[in-house]
Specification:
Layout (H helix, E strand, L loop, with lengths): L15 H11 L4 H8 L3 H8 L7 H11 L3 H6 L15 H39 L2
């Protein structure tokens, strides 16, 4: 395989941080915007892109949804990566719809995590009330 035949994000040479930064840029988002949508601090996102730390599973899932890439690609470089047109290449109405869909998907992931935590708390309190 020649240098020009290699995929944009060659899994043999790119890191998680490289893929995260590239997918974010391809989606037309700044670091601050992605951090805000993920509910993390900007310095946290920068540390992920610089490979100084790694996100938890729930944030990985949210990232994949927001950046329109597969979780497998984000983690390993294999699978569906950012081959879609950049947000700037789309008409404003389509870009707006895609942004809204990503926001809803992010809210759903967050709500699912929150619901799971509440359910766990409820089960614990029910057990305590039953004297277990």
């Amino acid at each position: 395989m020649t240098e020009t035949d290699k995929p944009w994000f060659d899994p043999d040479v790119t890191t998680f941080g490289d893929r995260l930064a590239g997918a974010r840029e391809r989606a037309g988002m700044s670091q601050a915007e992605l951090a805000r949508r993920l509910g993390v601090r900007l310095r946290t996102l920068k540390a992920w892109e610089d490979d100084l730390s790694e996100p938890r599973a729930n944030k990985l899932s949210m990232m994949a949804g927001l950046l329109n890439v597969s979780l497998l690609w984000l983690l390993s470089g294999e699978g569906e990566g950012p081959d879609a047109p950049a947000m700037g290449d789309l008409s404003p109405d389509i870009s707006g719809l895609l942004t809204e869909i990503r926001d809803i998907r992010t809210q759903l992931v967050y709500s699912t995590d929150r619901l799971a935590r509440l359910e766990k708390t409820l089960r614990t309190r029910l057990r305590e009330a039953a004297g277990e």
